[in-house]
Structure formats: C-alpha cells, structure tokens
Amino acid sequence: MTAEELQAIIEAGLPCEHITLEGDGRHWYATIVSAEFDGLRAIQRHQRVYKTLGAKMHTDEVHALSMKTFTPAEWASAPR
Asked: Which InterPro entries does the UniProt record give (predicted)?
C-alpha cells in the first residue's frame, strides 16, 4: 500500500484538515488533524482512525499505524 492509498482511505472515512504519512508500505506513522477528534480521548481518536481502515488492519495490509492526532485548535498551537 502506498502513502497516497492509505491517505485516501483515511480521508474517505474521516474528514481531515491535515494528514501526513510516512512509512514503508506496512509500517506507518501518521499525523492527523480532524474536528471529529473534539472531546475524544487519545484512545478514542485512534479507534476512530482504525475504524476507517476496517479490514485493512485485520488482513495485515497495514501492519502497524503509529499516530499523533490533533483537533484543529490543538494543531494550531502545536510546536512544529
């Protein structure tokens, strides 16, 4: 799976204001900014992203996904 394919899958199931992906095709690191994360704890945010991937996580197409998730307000104040 390419970064573009993975990004398209995530964006199809979760409106994102910003997303970056790095990885080798099976192991990924993502930074995701979405208003849907408002009021959610980190684990709930991650579950929301995993939900967009559905079977791709279970069939090992995406072996590992490490992520940082932000609301738009958190992203605006995050050091970069």
From this structure: BolA, BolA-like_sf, BolA/IbaG_stress_morph_reg
